[in-house]
Specification:
The complex is a heterodimer of chains A (468) and B (676). Helix content of chain A is 77%, strand content 0%. Chain A has helices at 5-12, 23-43, 49-68, 71-99, 104-111, 122-128, 130-154, 157-188, 200-222, 228-249, 265-297, 301-322, 328-359, 367-400, 408-428, 435-458. The radius of gyration of chain A is 24 Å and the shape is globular. Chain B has 676 residues and is of the alpha+beta class. In chain B, the strands form 6 sheets. In chain B, strands 14, 15, 18, 19, 20, 21 and 22 form a 7-stranded antiparallel β-sheet that branches. In chain B, helix 4 (81-110) runs antiparallel to helix 7 (171-192) and helix 9 (448-458) packs across helix 12. Classes of the chains: A mainly alpha (468), B alpha+beta (676). At the A-B interface, helix 1, helix 14 and helix 15 of A face helix 2, helix 6, strand 8, strand 11 and strand 24 of B.
C-alpha cells in the first residue's frame, strides 16, 4: 500500500457511527419510533407507567439492535408486515362471524378450522392465524435442521443458503405467531388479552425463536453454516415437545392470566430468561459438536464413558417424568419407550461419529472456533440470565412479599447461575479450554432444562405456571 | 491475562502466614469449590420439601432418618448454620479476591505503561516495525490514529525512546471489582432480611415461639415482638371485613410469634373479581391505615402485584377467606316422624350445641364459600370451561365423646343425571375424601318432599295404615288373601324398619343369616325386594298425594326420577352419621383478606448489590482492556524506527484479528512495515 494524502486523511478522521448509517437505517428507526408512538396512542389506557417505559424502551433497544446487527432490520420489518396483515384482516373477519351469533373465541377457532369449509378463511387456515404461523415455523425449523446437516456433509453452498433462509423464515413465522397470538388473546376479550409468554406452550415458541436468532448472529459473525445442524437439533427437540403439547394436550388454547401473572414484570423477566436459556442451549449443542468432532478424530475412552453415563441419566429422568400412572402396563410401556429413546440416542451418536469420519476433519469446523463461540454464547447467556434472575427477585418482592424465598424454581435458577459462573471462572481465570469445558457445557444444559421444566414436573412451589 | 511479563521486575513479597491465608482464601480453586458446594446444597432444599410439620417427615422417612435429617437441619436448610457458613465462606473468598486484586485493577486502569522496554514490546505477538522519515509528523499521526480508533493516548519521552501509549476498555477492570463486590453487597442485604435476628433472639432467650394459644390476645409476652425488636420479618395476618389489626403473625417452625406494628390496618372491603369463565381474576382489599403516633390516616386499595408501602413496611394481598359469615340453617331431623325442623343461626368459626335424642351434638362451623368454581366436566352442554356450584358451608358435628364428622353442604341444588340434588359430603378425617349424599330436589327445588318421605318411613302408625291398605288392594282378588295379609304387612313393616336404619345392606344381612337353604335365598331376596319396593312406592304416593298430585293419573317422568334418586339417598342415610341434615338457607357474607406484611430493610442493599453485579458482569464480559504502544527509537543502523505492539486482556483471538486490522490501516498512514 502506498501512502497517499487521501489515505492518511481517511484513516485519521474521526468516524462517526451516526454518519455511517444508511437511509434504510433511518427509515427503520423512524418506523419503529412511529409504531411505538401509535401503539401508545391506541393502548395507553391499558398501560401503567412501567408498561409505557417498557414500550418505548423496547423500541429504543430494537433500533439499537437493528443498527448494530443489520440483518435484523429486514427481519423486524418482515415480522411487522406479516403480523399487521393478519391483525388487519382478523378484525372484520371476526366481526362477520360474531354478527352471526358466534362468540369471539369460537370465531377465531372457526376461521382457522381446517375442517370447516364454510366459515374458515384460506388465509387464516394456512398462513395468518397464530396456529398456522407456528406450524410453518415448526416445519421450517425441522427441515432446516436436516438441510444444515446435509450442508455439513456435502459442503453444498446452495444447501447452506437454503438452510439459512429457512431458519430466518422460521424465526419470522415464530415471531409472527406470537404477535398474532397476542392480538388473538385481546380479540377474545380484553380480560383475556396478554403478552404470549405466560405458559409452557408460549415460552417454548419463544425459546425456539430466540435460540435461532442467537445462532443466526454467530452464523453471520463467523461466516460459517457448519454449526447449524447441531444447534437446530435442540430447536427441533423443542418443536417436537411443542407439537406434542399442542396436539395431545390442546395447550395452544389461550387462557386468561392468573392474578399473580398480571404484571409488567412478565414482559421483561421472561424474555430475559429465554435469552439466557437459548444461549446456554446453543452452547451445549456446540459442546456436543465439539466432542463429536474430537471423538471422530481421536476417540478417548473417558469421553465414551461420560457419554454413556449421560445417556443413561437422561433416559432415567425422562422415564421418571413420564411415570405417574397406576397401572403396571403403562409404566412398562413408558419404560419400553424410554429405553427405545435411549437406544435411539446411542444409535444416533454412533451414526454422527461415522458421518464425521466420512466428512473428514479438514471439512469440519475448527475446534478453537467452536470453543470460542461456546464461550461467547455462555457469556451472553450468563449476563442475561443474571438480569432475568434479579428481575424475578424484584417481581417476587412486589407480588409475594420477599425477593428471595428459596422456592424450588428460584433455587434452581441460582443453581444454574452458579454452574455457569463456575464455568466462566474456569475458562477466564484458570484458562481451561476444550474437552472438559465442552462436557461441562452439555451437562449445563441438563441443569438448565431441569430448572426450566423439571422443577414444574417433579417439584412444586409458587412457580407452577407451566404444568403439564 | 496481560502479557505483562516485561514489568515483572518487582521484588517478591515475603511469604508470610497472612499472605498464605489470603492466597488460599482468594484462590480460584476454593472459589469454584464453594460455588459448586452451594449449588449441591441448594438442590437438597428443593428435593426435600422444606418447613413441613415434623409429623409429615416422620411418616415419610421413618423415625431414624427423620432424626438424622433433623440433626443436619435439612428441613430449614437455607437457615441452617452450615449453609450460612457456606455463604460466609463465599463472602470471605470474594472479599479476599477483592482485597488482593482491587489495588492492582485500579492501578491497571490508570497505568498507561509508558515505561515499557523496546525489547519486551518487540516480543509481543503481532508487533510490527517501520522505518520512518519524519519522527515528529509520524508521532502526531500515530497518536491521532490511536485516538480515532477509540484509544486514549499518553506520551512519554525517555532518553532513548519516545513512547506513545494507547488504552481503551479500561472499565473492564472496574467491572471485575463491581461484579464481585456487588455479590457481597447483595449477600449483606439478604442477611439483613433473613431470619437470623429471630434465631439470635431465640438463642438468647429473648423470644420463644408459641404453639399453644388459639387467640393472639392469649399469647405470652415472650412470644410478642414490639416494633423495632426485629430488623426484618415477613408475616401474615387475616383481617375480616370491618375489623382492624395492628399485628402480624410470624410462622416459625411449629409455632408463631406475634409482631406488633406501629400502626393499625382496617379492612373496609374485600373483593374477588371473576372472569366470565368463573376463574378468579383479581383480589382487592380496601385498607385504611391508622397511625396514631404520627396522626396519619389514609386509605388505599391493594391487589395482587400492587402492595402498599408505609414507614418501611410493605403490605401485600396474599390470600382470602371467610371472616365470620353469618349463616342461617334449617335443621331437618332424620328419624322423626313429626319432622320437627329447627331454625338455627351460626357464624363461621363459631359453634352451636343441639340437643338430640342421642345426646348433645356440637355444630362447629368451619368455613363458608360464596362461590365454588370448578373445571367443567367433559361435554358440558353450554361449552363452558368452568361451572359454579354455588355457596357451600363446611362444618363439624362433634358428639359428647369428642369424635367429630366433617360435612360440606351446598346451598343450591346441583344438576345431576337429569335431575337436581342437594349435595352433602361427609368425611371422618381430613385425610379422607368426601363421600356424598345426594338428596333429590322436589318440583319446588326444596328438600321437603324427600324429608317428608323419610319422615313417613318413621311414622310407624301411618306407614302401617298405608301398608295394610296397599296389601289389601293387591290381594283383593287373590284367594286366601286375608290369611296372608297380616303376615305380609308385618314383613313389610320389618323390611321398612331394616331399610330405614340399615339400608339394603341390613336386609341383605338378614337374608344371609336366615336359616334357609342357599338356593332359596335368591328367591327370598327377590321377594323382599318386591315387598320393600311396594311399600316404598305406596309411601311415596302418599307423599305426592299430600302435595296435591292426582295419583290416579300416571306420575310425571320427573316424579319417577325423584323416586329412584330418593331410594338411593334413603339407603345412605344410615351411613350419614348424624341424625339431621343441616340445610344452609341464608347467609350474610363476611370476607376476610389474607395480608402478607414484610419489613425488609435490606431490600435496597440487595438491589444495589444486584445492579452492581449486573453492571460489573457486563463490563467484565464485554469490554476488553486493550493497550497499544508506539515506540520511536533509533535502531542499530541509526534509522528512525517505529515499533507498534498491542495486547488485550480478554478474547485473545478477537484481539489478534482486531490488531491485524489496525496494522493494515496504520500501514496506509505510515507505509509498509518491515520484518522485525
Amino acid at each position: 500500500m502506498s501512502v497517499t494524502e487521501d489515505a492518511i486523511h481517511d484513516e485519521l478522521k474521526r468516524d462517526s457511527f451516526v454518519k455511517k448509517l444508511s437511509l434504510f437505517d433511518w427509515f427503520f428507526a423512524v418506523s419503529l419510533i412511529v409504531a411505538a408512538g401509535y401503539a401508545y396512542q391506541l393502548y395507553s389506557y391499558l398501560m401503567d407507567g412501567y408498561e409505557v417505559a417498557i414500550l418505548f424502551g423496547t423500541a429504543a433497544s430494537l433500533v439499537a439492535l437493528g443498527w448494530w446487527w443489520k440483518a435484523t432490520r429486514l427481519f423486524m420489518v418482515a415480522v411487522a408486515a406479516v403480523s399487521l396483515l393478519s391483525v388487519i384482516l382478523y378484525a372484520p373477519a371476526i366481526q362477520t362471524l360474531v354478527e352471526r351469533g358466534m362468540d369471539s373465541r369460537d370465531a377465531i377457532a372457526t376461521l382457522a378450522n381446517l375442517d370447516d369449509k364454510v366459515n374458515s378463511k384460506f388465509l387464516f387456515k394456512y398462513f395468518l392465524s397464530s396456529t398456522s404461523a407456528i406450524m410453518w415455523m415448526s416445519a421450517l425449523f425441522i427441515m432446516a435442521t436436516l438441510i444444515y446437516f446435509f450442508h455439513l456433509a456435502t459442503r453444498s453452498e446452495y444447501a447452506g443458503k437454503v438452510a439459512t433462509a429457512m431458519t430466518w423464515t422460521a424465526t419470522v413465522m415464530g415471531f409472527v405467531g406470537l404477535m398474532v397470538r397476542w392480538r388473538e388473546s385481546y380479540l377474545i376479550s380484553s380480560e383475556v388479552g396478554h403478552i404470549p409468554v405466560s405458559n409452557l406452550y408460549e415460552v417454548f415458541i419463544l425459546f425456539s425463536v430466540i435460540t435461532a436468532l442467537i445462532y443466526l448472529y454467530y452464523e453471520g459473525r463467523y461466516k460459517t453454516k457448519a454449526m447449524g445442524g447441531f444447534v437446530l437439533m435442540v430447536i427441533s427437540a423443542a418443536i417436537g415437545f411443542l407439537l406434542w403439547y399442542h396436539f395431545n394436550k390442546g395447550a395452544h388454547e389461550i387462557a386468561p392470566l392468573v392474578p399473580a401473572l398480571k404484571s409488567y414484570w412478565m414482559k421483561i423477566h421472561v424474555p430475559a430468561n429465554f435469552i439466557g436459556y437459548g444461549a446456554f442451549a446453543l452452547a451445549a449443542m456446540l459442546g456436543m459438536f465439539f466432542l463429536f468432532i474430537e471423538h471422530a478424530k481421536s476417540p478417548k475412552l473417558s469421553n465414551q464413558i461420560v457419554a454413556q453415563i449421560l445417556i443413561f441419566v437422561i433416559t432415567l429422568l425422562s422415564f421418571l417424568a413420564s411415570v405417574g400412572a397406576d397401572s403396571f402396563a403403562v409404566v412398562a410401556k413408558n419404560l419400553g419407550l424410554t429405553i427405545l429413546i435411549g437406544g435411539g440416542f446411542w444409535v444416533l451418536g454412533f451414526g454422527i461419529v461415522r458421518g464425521m469420519r466420512a466428512i473428514g476433519s479438514d471439512n469440519l469446523p475448527k475446534l478453537e472456533m467452536l470453543d470460542d463461540v461456546m464461550h461467547k454464547s455462555i457469556a451472553l447467556g450468563f449476563g442475561f440470565f443474571t438480569i432475568a434472575t434479579v428481575l424475578g427477585a424484584a417481581w417476587a418482592a412486589e407480588a409475594w412479599g420477599g425477593y428471595w424465598s428459596w422456592d424450588p424454581k428460584e433455587t434452581w435458577a441460582l443453581i444454574v447461575w452458579l454452574n455457569y459462573a463456575a464455568w466462566l471462572h474456569m475458562r477466564l481465570m484458570k484458562g481451561l479450554r476444550g474437552t472438559p469445558l465442552a462436557w461441562w457445557s452439555v451437562v449445563g444444559l441438563l441443569i438448565t432444562t431441569f430448572a426450566f421444566v423439571g422443577v414444574n414436573i417433579f417439584l412444586s412451589g409458587l412457580h407452577a405456571y407451566g404444568e403439564l | 491475562m496481560d502479557n505483562n511479563t516485561h514489568t515483572a521486575d518487582v521484588a517478591r513479597p515475603a511469604v508470610t502466614r497472612r499472605s498464605v491465608l489470603l492466597d488460599f482464601l482468594g484462590s480460584m480453586n476454593l472459589a469454584i469449590t464453594i460455588l459448586v458446594i452451594i449449588a449441591i446444597a441448594s438442590v437438597i432444599g428443593t428435593v426435600l420439601k422444606q418447613n413441613q410439620p415434623y409429623t409429615d417427615y416422620i411418616i415419610k422417612f421413618g423415625p431414624f432418618w427423620h432424626e438424622f435429617f433433623l440433626s443436619l437441619n435439612l428441613y430449614d436448610i437455607y437457615s441452617s448454620i452450615w449453609f450460612l457458613a457456606l455463604l460466609v465462606s463465599l463472602v470471605m473468598s470474594l472479599s479476599a479476591c477483592i482485597f488482593r486484586n482491587t489495588p492492582t485493577m485500579l492501578q491497571e486502569m490508570r497505568n498507561f505503561r509508558l515505561n515499557s522496554k523496546i525489547k519486551s514490546l518487540g516480543t509481543i505477538e503481532g508487533a510490527k516495525s517501520w522505518v520512518i522519515d519524519d519522527v515528529e509528523t509520524t508521532e502526531k499521526n500515530v497518536a491521532r490514529f490511536f485516538e480515532v480508533n477509540g484509544y486514549k493516548v499518553r506520551r512519554k519521552q525517555h532518553d532513548d525512546r519516545i513512547i506513545v501509549a494507547g488504552m481503551r476498555g479500561r472499565w473492564n477492570r472496574l467491572g471485575y471489582v463491581f461484579a464481585h463486590l456487588g455479590i457481597i453487597v447483595l449477600l449483606v442485604g439478604g442477611v439483613m432480611d433473613s431470619t437470623i435476628d429471630i434465631s439470635l433472639r431465640e438463642s438468647l432467650g429473648l423470644s420463644q415461639i408459641d404453639n399453644e394459644s388459639v387467640f393472639v390476645k392469649d399469647m405470652p409476652k415472650i412470644s410478642q415482638l414490639q416494633p423495632g425488636d426485629l430488623l426484618s420479618f415477613r408475616g401474615n395476618v387475616s383481617i375480616a371485613e370491618g375489623q382492624t389489626a395492628n399485628f402480624t403473625l410470624l410462622r416459625i417452625r411449629e409455632g408463631s410469634l406475634v409482631q406488633y406494628l406501629p400502626f393499625a390496618i382496617k379492612l373496609k372491603d374485600f373483593r374477588v373479581e371473576h372472569y366470565s369463565s368463573g376463574q378468579p381474576k383479581s383480589f382487592e382489599s380496601d385498607l385504611v391505615i391508622i397511625d396514631k403516633d404520627r396522626d396519619v390516616t389514609f386509605e388505599q386499595t391493594i391487589a395482587v402485584n400492587h402492595p402498599l408501602q408505609y414507614r418501611g413496611y410493605t403490605i401485600y394481598q396474599a390470600s382470602f377467606g371467610d371472616g365470620g359469615s353469618e349463616l342461617k340453617f334449617k335443621v331437618w331431623p332424620f328419624y322423626d316422624a313429626k319432622l320437627r325442623t329447627l331454625d338455627v343461626e351460626g357464624v363461621v368459626h363459631g359453634e352451636r350445641v343441639l340437643e338430640t335424642l342421642s345426646g348433645p351434638l356440637t355444630i362447629e362451623v368451619i368455613d363458608f364459600k360464596k362461590y365454588n368454581v370448578r373445571p367443567a366436566m367433559q361435554g358440558d352442554p353450554k361449552g363452558k370451561k368452568f361451572v359454579n356450584d354455588g355457596s357451600s358451608v363446611v362444618f363439624k358435628v362433634r358428639n359428647s365423646s369428642g369424635i367429630a364428622k366433617e360435612y360440606i353442604n351446598y346451598m343450591s341444588p346441583l344438576k345431576q343425571n337429569g335431575g337436581y340434588v342437594f349435595v352433602s359430603g361427609l368425611r371422618n378425617s381430613p385425610s379422607e375424601a368426601y363421600r356424598y349424599l345426594h338428596i333429590p330436589a322436589d318440583d319446588k327445588f326444596t328438600v321437603e318432599r324427600f324429608m317428608k318421605f323419610h319422615a313417613l318411613m318413621n311414622n310407624t302408625e301411618r306407614a302401617q295404615q298405608i301398608a295394610t291398605k296397599t296389601v289389601s288392594q293387591v290381594l283383593k282378588n287373590a284367594p286366601d288373601g286375608d290369611k296372608y295379609k297380616q303376615n305380609i304387612v308385618t314383613t313389610m313393616m320389618e323390611l321398612l324398619d331394616r331399610f330405614n336404619y340399615g339400608g339394603y345392606a341390613a336386609i341383605e344381612n338378614h337374608v344371609r343369616k336366615a336359616a334357609i337353604p342357599e338356593d332359596q335365598k335368591s328367591k327370598m331376596r327377590e321377594a323382599y325386594r318386591k315387598v320393600l319396593n311396594t311399600i316404598l312406592q305406596a309411601l311415596y304416593m302418599d307423599v305426592l298425594q299430600a302435595e296435591g298430585v292426582d295419583i290416579h293419573k300416571p306420575i310425571s317422568e320427573q316424579q319417577q326420577g325423584f323416586y329412584l334418586a330418593a331410594l338411593d339417598a334413603l339407603r345412605q342415610i344410615p351411613l350419614y352419621g348424624t341424625p339431621f341434615y343441616a340445610q344452609l338457607t341464608d347467609f350474610t357474607h363476611v370476607e376476610s383478606s389474607g395480608l402478607s406484611i414484610a419489613k425488609l430493610p435490606g431490600k435496597n442493599v440487595f438491589y444495589l448489590g444486584c445492579i452492581m453485579s449486573i453492571i460489573g458482569i457486563f463490563l467484565l464480559l464485554y469490554l476488553s482492556h486493550q493497550r497499544l504502544w508506539a515506540v520511536f527509537y533509533k535502531n542499530e543502523s541509526g534509522q528512525d524506527t517505529l515499533l507498534v505492539a498491542g495486547s488485550g486482556n480478554r478474547n485473545v483471538a478477537d484481539f489478534r484479528q482486531h490488531f491485524q486490522l489496525l496494522m493494515e490501516k496504520l500501514s496506509r498512514v505510515v507505509g509498509e512495515p518491515k520484518n522485525i
